[in-house]
Specification:
By secondary structure, this protein is an alpha+beta fold. Helices cover about 25% and strands about 30% of the residues. The strands form 3 sheets. Strands 7-6-5-4-2-3-1-8 form an 8-stranded mixed beta sheet, with helices on both faces. Strands 9, 10, 11, 12, 13, 17 and 18 form a 7-stranded mixed beta sheet that branches. The longest helix is centred in the C-terminal third of the chain and has 29 residues. The protein is globular, with a radius of gyration of 24 Å.
Length: about 450
């Protein structure tokens, strides 16, 4: 028995409205959420064509040669940044003409594996053994309107296609549940004399990987309570006449407790390293996750918000590095300090849904740029007045420098007037010439926790 995909009716309408306009095919991504019993598809978006492909794709004789795997995977990487916790790229779709209908199955198989591999490469977390590992390929013939839905197990490179059910449902995500929290981060990444020569991006990723373990091992309070992970998230709520909890739109407040000290059965050895600099990430980030309302489990809700915390911090750092490279910002000289403001988060509603997508905005970017980015990446028309800017309090401060310093600040006058819109600060301080303890032996017994969120 194959998997079942419950699909928002608006997705079916979107796919039906795609016009090939003489092209051999149109490909795109399917977005939604996995669960143990079934998967939910709430959005589909076509992959924007390359400018140089606009003409070449009009010649069907080229067939699979024009299915640009690298371009589709890059689109998937960009889209994955715009998804809050709980949402994933579930697979790919392709719409073809009749004569090409049988030529794309192998191409689709390669594509779904390439997309998954590319998206997971930069994540700070890994899928668990218990999670659904099947991803979907949807093939629609534009002439006959027939739909071929198949899945592949992405954990098995040799897996063969399995048939799956594709069922439409109206108002699928009109009452999904949301989880929200504000996480305060203060990540100090010491750079050894060896590591200081590495690229800033690599050093930051290494430091974030260690921080991610803290979040993974944290305790999550939902509306101030610690709940058993196997309990229903909606346990204790009033039930309707059919016996199901009455659910409209509902939001849960989440707080994160992280471990300060290791327990007595964990031992650590003190290591002292000579450090030539450090990277510091400090500030507050808004995190949000969504989960379906069909008997959701606490563990699924915690996992969704946990991964959003990890994704949003990693994504902001990656966007900053891309911006520095794009604008060719010169590196600071020795004994200088750099200050970079990371982009802050903007949420955007989906029509007919309680789910909101997101994007990231630097202080000098206009709202029109966010709108244009949504049109390009998600093929969604949005209204500027619907943008919800997450007002993330800037808790960062500049420490006194032992050497001469200069700062590089991606803020403008408008941002200066609205400090609440500032998010994390990435501070790079090099060549401070001090010896720092990289890890300290822990002698205390028991476990201590501290709040990592409001």
């Amino acid at each position: 028995m194959g998997r079942t995909y419950i699909v928002e009716e608006a997705v079916g309408q979107y796919l039906a409205n795609i016009d090939l306009q003489g092209k051999a095919f149109v490909s795109g991504l399917l977005i939604g959420q996995c669960s143990s019993q079934k998967d939910y598809v709430i959005l589909a978006t076509r992959t924007p064509p390359k400018e140089e492909q606009n003409e070449s794709l009009k010649h069907p004789k080229d067939k699979m040669d024009n299915l640009d795997e690298e371009w589709v995977t890059e689109h998937a990487n960009q889209v994955s940044r715009m998804l809050p916790g709980g949402l994933l790229v579930l697979g790919v779709f392709i719409i073809t003409t009749l004569e090409l209908a049988n030529d794309f199955q192998n191409a689709l198989r390669r594509l779904v594996f390439a997309v998954e591999k590319s998206m997971n490469k930069k994540k700070l977390w890994s899928f668990t053994e218990e999670e659904v590992s099947e991803r979907v390929t949807l093939h629609i013939c534009s002439s006959t309107k027939k739909i071929f839905c198949r899945t592949y197990d992405i954990r098995d490179p040799k897996s063969s296609a399995r048939p799956a059910d594709w069922k439409y449902q109206n108002g699928l995500s009109t009452s999904w549940l949301s989880l929200e929290c504000t996480v305060h981060i203060n990540i100090h990444i010491p750079l050894s004399t060896t590591a200081v020569s590495y690229a800033l991006e690599k050093n930051t990723k290494n430091g974030l990987t260690r921080w991610a373990k803290q979040i993974e091992n944290g305790v999550f309070l939902i509306n101030g309570q610690v709940k058993d992970e196997d309990c229903d998230l909606l346990q204790g709520q009033k039930k309707s006449s059919r016996g199901n909890p009455q659910v409209t739109y509902q939001s849960f407040d989440v707080r994160v407790l992280t471990q300060l000290l290791l327990s007595s059965d964990h031992r650590s050895t003190a290591t002292v390293q000579i450090c030539s600099g450090s990277v510091n990430l400090k500030g507050a980030v808004k995190c949000r996750a969504y989960i379906h309302n069909s008997k959701p489990k606490v563990k699924d809700a915690v996992q969704a918000i946990k991964r959003d915390i990890l994704n949003t911090v990693a994504d902001r750092c990656e966007i900053l590095f891309e911006d520095l490279l794009l604008n060719e910002i010169p590196e600071k000289k020795d004994s200088e300090k750099e200050l970079h403001i990371l982009p802050h988060r903007v949420f955007v509603p989906i029509s007919g849904s309680t789910v909101m997508l997101c994007d990231y905005k630097f202080g000098d970017e206009a709202a029109e740029e966010i709108r244009d980015h949504f049109i390009e990446m998600l093929d969604q028309m949005i209204q500027i007045e619907d943008l919800e800017i997450a007002e993330e309090i800037n808790t960062a401060c500049m420490s006194s420098s032992m050497d001469s310093e200069a700062s590089l600040d991606f803020t403008d006058d408008e941002q200066a007037k609205q400090p609440l819109k500032t998010t994390i600060v990435l501070k790079i301080q090099q060549n401070i010439g001090v010896i720092t303890a990289f890890a300290v032996a822990v002698l205390a017994a028991g476990i201590s926790f501290h709040y990592f969120s409001d």
